[in-house]
Amino acid sequence: MATGRTHRPATRSRGIPEATVARLPLYLRALTALSERSVPTVSSEELAAAAGVNSAKLRKDFSYLGSYGTRGVGYDVEYLVYQISRELGLTQDWPVVIVGIGNLGAALANYGGFASRGFRIAALIDADPAMTGKMVAGLPLRHTDELESIIEDNGVSIGVIATPAGAAQQVCNRLVEAGVTSILNFAPTVLTVPDGVDVRKVDLSIELQILAFHEQRKAGEEADLAQPDTDAPAAPPAATARTVPAEKRRPEPGSDGDIPAVMPA
Amino acid sequence: MATGRTHRPATRSRGIPEATVARLPLYLRALTALSERSVPTVSSEELAAAAGVNSAKLRKDFSYLGSYGTRGVGYDVEYLVYQISRELGLTQDWPVVIVGIGNLGAALANYGGFASRGFRIAALIDADPAMTGKMVAGLPLRHTDELESIIEDNGVSIGVIATPAGAAQQVCNRLVEAGVTSILNFAPTVLTVPDGVDVRKVDLSIELQILAFHEQRKAGEEADLAQPDTDAPAAPPAATARTVPAEKRRPEPGSDGDIPAVMPA
DNA sequence: TATTGTGAACGCTTTCACAGCG
DNA sequence: CGCTGTGAAAGCGTTCACAATA
């Protein structure tokens, strides 16, 4: 690198590692905050701290975009904001639809992060006819029947699925059929899509379970040799079926109200 | 492995790769579905398909837990459900608090995935005094003042932060101070925590930005040599500050209502 | 025979450490 | 001198392909 900067720093984009792409939004956020405080330049060390990564990683990441820094000085904040925004495709307008306006869908519609940075909610779509026309986040709910026309009319290529698990695949199919090629899935299901369609999933229950794993680890380290195999079945792998010792949750008097148990775990 | 199965398949847990841990909940979900359909055994191929991974990966993952399968047959569904549940720490009760009951917090409180699998909402906490006592998901909202006592009284070690970005670090500090050691963060900020505290973040805006990157890629591949550098500033890295070409979003007549623009990107 | 369990190869990601340069 | 940019090394994670075995 260093030498030979050709005339197109633009489509040098070929082959930015996925791990780097996933961090660019983080850097962008930190840079935006600096920009708002009118900080003109920032070192890799400072920016890395703000983004919660280490500086070597950050420098390596930026090296995939080009040589945008100045040795001995750091990075120009505004310039980097622009370059990263462009790299991420945020200098253009991305109409999105949100399908499934329950608690979560409504939260998403009201979430500022969607409206900012080039994302624009083209429509909120729900299957419940009784909800059609109701206003959420300033937008009228549209019925699922209109899904295809909404997508085509608005040139929507990004869809957000916030339906119950059972409806997700079907909604997904219709989105893809209508032309959506990127999907953000909040429903706790594995979606099957054709090649060329990207799916990212956000799964609250999975995140909690990962935390529980580590939490258990911590607890186990203290007591260590405790936990002499609770009442675990030492059943031979392919013998009589073993059942989880049923619900052994203590419902803690007075705090287990009517929490819906959808069991999407 | 194979040979020498010692008496404690239990705390063989040492050193399960993080990537594997992150997939265990996925397998568990697929297995639970099979269990509900009373399917007795499943092959790595079938289970992998249901979980959306390839079978080699699944077998490797399971190999870290122990030899729970039967060659020529497959895995006993119930037995695996139990083993994975135990590995993840889901056979015990995990009281959690959710802090910040806005749109998102309420959605989380109502989300079935929280209530299932050993997670129990110990309390919903919000800073707004006007909200205190209001019922959400069958639980009364508690005021932030009670945060410490709630955590101590209930032995809460997992906290969910769904506050605005500005309040997140402060809430986090109080949670950690009171004894929480695992945090699921929905606020778009980097949280700083002491060693020994786990943080996982869920960031809607980041996921969308990653999708936008790939989406842009796809579009670029079609038109390819098009996009001759929109109006990009070829500014020398450390020269005069470059500003993003201001808002060039077309507000698409009639659809840019009062969407809050919090800009947490 | 069908399918698991796993060494070994491969590829991606992170980290190191320092040359290059303003 | 200070800080970026980057080869090279180290560390993980995935995939291959096949020996082990119920």
TrEMBL record, chains A, B:
Annotated Low complexity bias: 225-244
Gene Ontology molecular function terms on file: DNA binding; DNA-binding transcription factor activity
Pfam short name (any one): Put_DNA-bind_N
Location(s) in or outside the cell: Cytoplasm
Presence of the UniProt keyword NAD in the record: yes
Principal place of residence: cytoplasm
GO CC entries: cytoplasm
Keywords carried by this UniProt record: Cytoplasm, DNA-binding, NAD, Repressor, Transcription, Transcription regulation
Record region (Disordered): 219-265
UniProt binding sites for NAD(+): G100, I101, G102, N103, L104, G105
Known role: Modulates transcription in response to changes in cellular NADH/NAD(+) redox state.
Similarity annotation: Belongs to the transcriptional regulatory Rex family.
Oligomeric form and interacting partners: Homodimer.
NCBIfam families reported in the protein's UniProt record: PRK05472.1-3, PRK05472.2-1, PRK05472.2-2, PRK05472.2-3, PRK05472.2-4, PRK05472.2-5
Protein name: Redox-sensing transcriptional repressor Rex
